[in-house]
Amino acid sequence: MNFKKILEKFFSQIRVQRQLTGVFMLALLVPVTCIGFLLLYNSQKTLFNHYQEQAESDGLRVRSIMFDLTTNFYNLSEDIVSDESLQNLLDGSWDSIAEAHIASDRYNRITEIRQQDTSIESISIYTYNEQLAGYGNFLPITEDLKETEWFQQAASTSAIFWRTAKREDTYGNTYWELNMVRQLTLPSSRSYAVLVVTASNNYLKNRIDNNALKNIITVNDDPAFFSTDRKYVGNPVPLELDTSQYSYTDSGVLSLDDSNTMASVNTLVPYKSDDRIYVISYNPQALGELRQIQSNYALILVFAILIPCLLMYLFIRYFSARVNTLRSAMHQASQGDYNIIDSFHGNDELSEAFQDLQMMIQEIKQKEALVYEARLKEQELENRQQQMEYKMLASQINPHFLYNTLETIRMKAFAAGNREVAMAIKLLGKSLRYVLDNTGTVSTTLAKEIDYLRIYFSIQQLRFGDRINYTVNIQDGLDLENYQILPLLLQPIVENAVSHGLENVDENGQILLNIYEENDTCLCIDISDNGVGMTERELADLRKNISEKDTSRTQSIGLYNINQRIQLCYGPEYSLSIASAQGKGTTVSLRLPLNKLME
C-alpha cells in the first residue's frame, strides 16, 4: 500500500473538522513554527556576532591610535635624548641664573616639537642642574621626588616605561594622563636627567570618541587615564584583566562594573617597552537592544502563529457546522422526510449544494417515478460537494505560501548554479507581490510604480534579450516618493508597447519613459516606443476605442480602462492621449493633476 492510499484511508475515517485541523497543522502551523524559531535563533546569533565584531573592530581602531601615539613618542624621545645641544645645556654652568635662563631660551627644540605635534600635552625634563631647574620645561629633582617609585625606576634603568600620572592645575582641577618616562644620560658629567612626555587627553578624545561605543584605556595596573565615561578616569579598571598574558585579548559578554556588557579587550605592548596598555571597547546598550529585538521577534512569531490558528479555528468550526447542517438535511431526505427547513445561509458552494438538495427534493416529489434521474442528480450533488471541499482546501494557499514556495524554488535554482532561473523567479515573486499588495488599494507612490515597471522590463529582457530595452528619464529635482497615483496604471501601457509596438522589431527595441512637471499644475508621463507605429486610420480607430465603450470589443480594453480610471479619479479634463506615425513608433501620454497627486 503506497503513501497516497494510506493518506486517503486515514482521512476517509475521520471527521471533516479533524481533517482540516490535521492538514492545517501539517501544512502551515508546524512549518511556520519551526522556521520561525530557526529564524529567531539565526537572527539573534547574527546580531550578537555583529555587536561583538563591532566591539572588536573598535578596540583594534583604538589600539592602532595608541600604537601610533606610543611609537611617535618613542621616536621623539630618541631625538631628544640624543640631542648634544640639550646635553650640553643640562651639563652647563653659568655665572648667574639669568644667563642660564637665557641659554635655556635659546634652546627651542622642545618648544618646536610641542607646537608641531598636537598629541603632546607637555615635555618635562627633571634635572640636577639647579641653575636650570624650575625654569621652562626644566624641573628640579627634589628629595620627595627621589622617593617616588617611578623616579627610582627611571634612575635605575635606561629603558622606556609608561605610567598613569595624576596632575592638578592652578584651579584645583584633577587630570589623569599617560606619561612616557625615560632616562636622559649625560656622558660629560656622568649624570643623568629624566625625560617625561605627557599625552594630550584632548587629542585622545578627538581621535577616539567618534562613534557610539565607549572606551577605557589603562597602563598595567594603574588607574585608567582615559575613558569615554568620566567616572572611570582615575579609578581601577572595572573589568578583570589577565595581566599574566603577554598580549591579553578577550571579547563577547564581559562583566563590566558588576554588569554584563558587550565588550572587547586588546593589549598593546609599546615599542621598546615591557609595559602593557589595555584598551577596552564596550557597548552598554548592545545587550539591551539584543533582548529588545529578541522580544520583538518572539512577539511577531507568537502573533504569526496565534492569528492563523484563531482564524483557522473559527473557520473550521463554521465550515464543520455548515457541513453538518447539510449532512443532516441530506440524511433527513434519505429517510424519506422531505420537510426540510431552509436554515442554510450564504452564497458559497455549500449554499449551492443545499439549494440543489432542495431542488432535488422537489423533483423527487414531482417525479418519483423517475428514479434513475434522481440517482444521477444525487451523484452530481456528491461530485459538486467533493469539488467544493477541494476548492475550500485549495483556497488556504495564501500569498505568503506562494512567496515562500517561489523563494524555495529560487534557492534551489541558485544552488544548482542556474542564476538566470533564480533571477527570473525572484523577479516574478516581486511582480506578484506588487500586484497582490495593490489589489483593492486606491493609490501608490509613483516611485513604487516605476520600480514595478523596472521589474516588468527585467522579466521581458529575460525573455527577449536585447530586443527589449528601456530608458527612464526623470526631471531633475522630481521626487517620485511625493506623488500618489492609481496603482497598476502604467504597466498595461508598457505591456501594450511591448506586445504591439515592438512585435515585429527583431533587435534594439526601445521604450522610453519621460516623467516631468508642466506649468507647475500637471504631471506628465510619456511612454514611447520605436516600433512599427500605426497608420492614420489605425490611430483614429484606436482613439475611438479608448474613448467609447464597446462590450463586444476584445482589443484596446486595457487602454480604455486606464482612460476611464483617470477620468473617474481626476476629472474629465484629464485623460490618455496617443500619437503615432507608421515606421516611427507610438507615444502614449498621461496628464495628471499635480495638486491631487501631491495630496
Automatic annotation (TrEMBL):
<keyword id="KW-0902">Two-component regulatory system</keyword>
<dbReference type="GO" id="GO:0016020">
    <property type="term" value="C:membrane"/>
</dbReference>
<dbReference type="Pfam" id="PF02518">
    <property type="entry name" value="HATPase_c"/>
</dbReference>
<dbReference type="GO" id="GO:0000155">
    <property type="term" value="F:phosphorelay sensor kinase activity"/>
</dbReference>
<keyword id="KW-1133">Transmembrane helix</keyword>
<keyword id="KW-0418">Kinase</keyword>
<dbReference type="InterPro" id="IPR003660">
    <property type="entry name" value="HAMP_dom"/>
</dbReference>
<keyword id="KW-0808">Transferase</keyword>
<keyword id="KW-0812">Transmembrane</keyword>
<protein>
    <recommendedName>
        <fullName>histidine kinase</fullName>
        <ecNumber>2.7.13.3</ecNumber>
    </recommendedName>
</protein>
<feature type="domain" description="HAMP">
    <location>
        <begin position="317"/>
        <end position="369"/>
    </location>
</feature>
<feature type="coiled-coil region">
    <location>
        <begin position="347"/>
        <end position="396"/>
    </location>
</feature>
<dbReference type="InterPro" id="IPR010559">
    <property type="entry name" value="Sig_transdc_His_kin_internal"/>
</dbReference>
<feature type="transmembrane region" description="Helical">
    <location>
        <begin position="297"/>
        <end position="316"/>
    </location>
</feature>
<keyword id="KW-0472">Membrane</keyword>
<dbReference type="InterPro" id="IPR036890">
    <property type="entry name" value="HATPase_C_sf"/>
</dbReference>
<dbReference type="Pfam" id="PF06580">
    <property type="entry name" value="His_kinase"/>
</dbReference>
<dbReference type="InterPro" id="IPR050640">
    <property type="entry name" value="Bact_2-comp_sensor_kinase"/>
</dbReference>
<dbReference type="InterPro" id="IPR005467">
    <property type="entry name" value="His_kinase_dom"/>
</dbReference>
<feature type="transmembrane region" description="Helical">
    <location>
        <begin position="20"/>
        <end position="41"/>
    </location>
</feature>
<keyword id="KW-0175">Coiled coil</keyword>
<keyword id="KW-0597">Phosphoprotein</keyword>
<feature type="domain" description="Histidine kinase">
    <location>
        <begin position="490"/>
        <end position="596"/>
    </location>
</feature>
<dbReference type="InterPro" id="IPR003594">
    <property type="entry name" value="HATPase_dom"/>
</dbReference>
